[in-house]
Known about the structure:
With 345 residues, the protein is of the alpha+beta class. The protein folds into 2 domains: 65-211, CATH 3.40.33.10; 223-343, Immunoglobulin-like, CATH 2.60.40.3780. Helix content is 17%, strand content 21%. It has helices at 65-80, 89-105, 142-148, 168-176, 180-185, 254-258; strands at 86-87, 155-162, 192-197, 204-211, 223-225, 263-266, 273-282, 291-294, 308-313, 322-331, 334-343. α1 runs parallel beside α4.
Amino acid sequence: xxxxxxxxxxxxxxxxxxxxxxxxxxxxxxxxxxxxxxxxxxxxxxxxxxxxxxxxxxxxxxxxxxxxxxxxxxxxxxxxxxxxxxxxxxxxxxxxxxxxxxxxxxxxxxxxxxxxxxxxxxxxxxxxxxxxxxxxxxxxxxxxxxxxxxxxxxxxxxxxxxxxxxxxxxxxxxxxxxxxxxxxxxxxxxxxxxxxxxxxxxxxxxxxxxxxxxxxxxxxxxxxxxxxxxxxxxxxxxxxxxxxxxxxxxxxxxxxxxxxxxxxxxxxxxxxxxxxxxxxxxxxxxxxxxxxxxxxxxxxxxxxxxxxxxxxxxxxxxxxxxxxxxxxxxxxxxxxxxxxxxxxx
Length: 345
């Protein structure tokens, strides 16, 4: 959850990587043949993806916060090179049902549930767990609630955030301004989206993502965020729980003063990204910023999957400033490099 806005913990599932080796066989000796000239090496064969580049027009009112939120989400996914998400009315209904449960049962609104706490059974934030004895119950976890609403997909994932009366686009921006929650937004296989935005003073937002069939990216996919040429980038990371930076407090101004906006590089789900160089430098400067590198291997909460790496500087970015990023590493052992720039707001 966001400490300042009670944001949930997004769980990013890290899948194990399996590999198979080829077998050998005995052969009978044959007469020698004339030598042939060397052949030119070829690179890995690229398998194309199945990515939604267009989706039906949203049916939310164009002035609604739901429209603003989903539009911001699809803009984000487009910038990262991921497939867009199509609106699903049944996921909208599941989102609205869970929003109603959260609002009526919040201890701060006269209810009995402290949504800043965690479920002792699943370990998940209580923002995701419903109690069957309470009002507006439609299912214990989001998959149950999606089925209650008639959604027949094979997967449902949920995020909850708060707009603070700044609107749906701002609410989405707080998710993208984190490490773990952004990783959750970059799921590559989901196809559908539903959202509900409350009119409460916190402007609570419930988002459900789902799929009936997987979408996928090409086998040579590399996504970076902020994207090359992107402008209006925020200056620092947003507070979330669990805290990705154990040395920083979520109760004071550590995040605004001791972090930059997170920079991420991702490859195909289940691949392993290994980092040789990952640096961000203010334009016109020669020395890169002192920064934290986060991957699956050093994630203090073991949330990140093997296909993503984050860089977070130890000081905020400057306003209205261009930053240059250099990355070198391997994707399942194959070397690749990326260089790009973005500008802060």
